[in-house]
UniProtKB/TrEMBL annotation:
It comes from Paraburkholderia steynii. It comes from the Bacteria. This is Pilus assembly protein PilO. The chain crosses the membrane at residues 21-39. Keywords: Membrane, Transmembrane, Transmembrane helix. The keyword Transmembrane helix applies.
């Protein structure tokens, strides 16, 4: 279709619509089209709001049930009081460190010299043993090592990890991993 022919047809349509409906009629048609667009948007928004409300309703009901259960149960206090007894004693720390180093050896990681810090709150019921371990290998190997430690040592937590890539085109990473081992104390 030619551009001139298209232009002529649009002009003809405009003159024909003006002749049939007039300015008031065309304004009414434009307002009706705008009302249809706004109504369609409102219906879509209402449908999305209902869907979102249906997603939130189970979580809100569970939260309400949790609050009701928390206020009425005194058994939880006994469980919390016995929680430090579930953690191993500090004497078990050498076995945990040996297990972490064994996982590093099994993962064929290049391990540097580790730093150890003991953190004990005065009068606290827990002793925290922090271990900063520098490792060097590929990302997948480091990630597998972290997962194996966290899955096998139940009182270990990954406190911090810092990863650097010394060479832009290299695949070997320098990482510093800080584990925190939590132990219960014998004090009540």
């Amino acid at each position: 279709m030619n551009v001139e022919l298209l232009r002529e047809r649009c002009l003809t349509l405009r003159f024909e619509l003006m002749r049939r409906f007039g300015i008031a009629g065309l304004t009414g048609i434009a307002l009706l089209c705008a009302a249809v667009v706004v109504a369609d948007s409102a219906i879509r928004m209402q449908r999305d709001t209902i869907a979102l409300s249906n997603e939130v309703r189970p979580a809100r009901a569970a939260k309400t049930a949790d609050v009701a259960r928390d206020t009425g149960s005194y058994a939880d206090t006994a469980v919390l009081a016995s929680l430090p007894d579930l953690f191993p004693r500090f004497a078990h720390s050498a076995d945990d460190i040996a297990a972490i180093l064994a996982h590093a050896r099994d993962s064929n990681l290049a391990v540097g010299s580790a730093e150890y810090v003991i953190v004990a709150d005065p009068g606290g019921r827990y002793v925290r043993y922090q271990m900063l371990l520098p490792v060097k290998d590929q990302y997948v190997t480091i990630r597998r090592f972290l997962a194996s430690v966290l899955n096998s040592v139940p009182n270990a937590a990954l406190r911090e990890i810092h990863v650097e890539r010394p060479a832009v085109d290299g695949s070997v990473l320098d990482a510093r991993v800080r584990f925190e081992l939590v132990y219960g104390t014998a004090r009540p």
